[in-house]
Amino acid sequence: MIIGNVRLSESGSSRRLLRKLGACLGLPVLSLSISCGLAPRAREAASVGYASRGYLAAGAALPEHGSGYVRGRPGDDTRWAAPLAKDALERAAAAVARALPGGAPLVVGDLSARTGGQHARHGSHRSGRDADLMFYVVDAAGRSVRGSGYYAFDQLGATSAHVPGGRLAALALFDDARNWALVRALIMDDEAPVTWIFCADGIKARLLSYAALTERDPRALVRAAYVLHQPTSGNPHRDHFHVRFACTARERALGCLDAGPIWPWQRLDHEKPERGGTDDDRTLVEALLSDRTDDPDGRR
Hints:
The chain is of the alpha+beta class and 300 residues long. The protein has a domain at 59-248: Muramoyl-pentapeptide Carboxypeptidase, domain 2. It has helices at residues 12-25, 29-38, 83-99, 176-187, 201-214, 218-227, 249-253, 267-271, 281-290, and strands spanning 2-3, 6-7, 46-49, 54-57, 60-61, 65-66, 69-71, 80-81, 106-108, 130-134, 137-139, 144-145, 158-162, 168-174, 194-198, 228-229, 240-245. Strand 1 and strand 2 (6-7) form a beta hairpin. The longest helix has 17 residues, at 83-99.
């Protein structure tokens, strides 16, 4: 086993060292040993461990701004994510801008620190698979205005923001069209599967009601019904979406751990990871048999 440039034997002392490292990082020993055992010498991007107990290796930084989005904390170090998650956020913001041009950009809040780990403002956001996205909002005249974490909505979709100093900001309305377009872009992007989009129950009900009237693809409605979810404890998320991306097949091999469910449309990738070809049952059987010798009994 290699950690950095140090080779460890599978001795008891090595296992004790792994336990200490795992305790430090908040990771199970098995996860840490899998990650250390399979990680190539050249650093490979990987989200390791759970979203609330993990770290990020060779993550990608989300630029300050891009097509359809701006970062809400410019200059802050919590702008790192697993590359597939970062790319998915950029694709989703761009998709909303294309579908509904002329609006204010998506405001992207906290991702993870450069190497993940403990986050000063969150109990999660530790392994590059979490992202806070401010809701799209419109003013009383229906004009798209920049979103902010100061706006907290319910099923009625109207709010006034309490800004620092106690001042009450102007009335803002939940932008149903753009918020649904964002959710749709994320849940229909199979290159970076999403486990959860945390939001309050009232927000979920509002989005599903809007989608039921406007959405043409029934798969989007089914996925949204599964993925939109109010956390069972803590912040109900009335002021922003909290997106959590699932582990990819490669990340699972490197020690990524999912605490959430594997949704029905994600199970094929989960059970039969990509091997560079079509992974039907015949292909898998042939791949297994190809590892055997010419010995008819299959002995090695």
